[in-house]
Design brief:
With 242 residues, the chain is an all-alpha fold. The chain is built from 15 helices and no strands. InterPro entries: NEBU/NEBL, Nebulin-like, Nebulin_repeat.
Length: 242
């Protein structure tokens, strides 16, 4: 049933330089995530070359030395035991400086002003920071970054559309079985069908009772004066012991 349609499908060939094929390739290249990050992947494969005396390296080393706990306490360890005692801790300038530093580093005192004022802040909706955040969100949003093309529509009287509809009708199971819908729900007896009649005929051909007739069922009357009967009687008399 579908042999002609399968042969027709194999005979169709679309040229690779048609506008529709070129447009599909361009759209695939535009929405391809692999091509989108290809330049970044190539840049990462090249690696980098940074000298030991580069400014970022020197800055990182200086920051590490400043943040180092050993460097931070080195001056204190050198001066330990070089000063004499004072009447009270408040009179010692270094102890007072240390107490001041502890008070500044205390987390409770550090966040006290913030906790007192955080419920009193009101940011207007047209503030520069809010507007900048909205603009940044718009720039990094994937929804506004990609503009998808509209859906193409075809005219109903085009040859390819008509051919596609005919192919769909030929392949449609509903159209293929529509002439049998009136049989759904109707009862049907096997008596009189082709297979039943064929089985009956085969049974009659193989039935030995109908094929052969037993001798005792034959109705006949023999003729008494036929030559064979007279010969049989004569032979019986000649052979009779009586």
């Amino acid at each position: 049933y579908t042999e002609a349609w399968d042969a027709d499908k194999k005979s169709i060939h679309v040229m690779p330089d048609t506008p529709a094929i070129l447009l599909a390739k361009a759209n695939a290249a535009n929405v391809s995530n692999k091509l989108y990050v290809q330049a970044w992947e190539d840049a990462k494969k090249k690696g980098y070359d940074m000298r030991a005396d580069a400014i970022p390296i020197q800055s990182a080393k200086a920051s590490r030395d400043i943040a180092s706990d050993y460097k931070y306490k080195e001056a204190h360890e050198k001066e330990k035991g070089h000063y004499v005692g004072c009447p009270s801790a408040k009179d010692d300038p270094k102890l007072a400086l240390a107490a001041r530093a502890m008070a500044l580093q205390n987390d409770r005192l550090y966040k006290k002003a913030y906790n007192d004022s955080k419920t009193q802040i009101h940011i207007p909706v047209d503030a520069l920071s809010v507007q900048a955040a909205k603009e940044c969100q718009t720039l990094v949003s994937d929804v506004d970054y990609r503009q998808y093309l509209h859906q193409w529509t075809c005219l109903p009287d085009q040859n390819d559309v008509i051919h596609a509809r005919q192919a769909y009708d030929l392949q449609s199971d509903n159209v293929y079985k529509s002439d049998l819908e009136w049989l759904r729900g109707i009862g049907w007896l096997t008596e009189g069908s082709v297979d039943v009649v064929k089985a009956k005929k085969a049974q009659e051909l193989l039935n030995e009772r109908l094929y052969r007739t037993r001798p005792e069922q034959l109705k006949f009357t023999s003729i008494t004066d036929s030559p064979d009967v007279v010969l049989a009687k004569t032979n019986a008399m000649q052979l009779s012991d009586v």
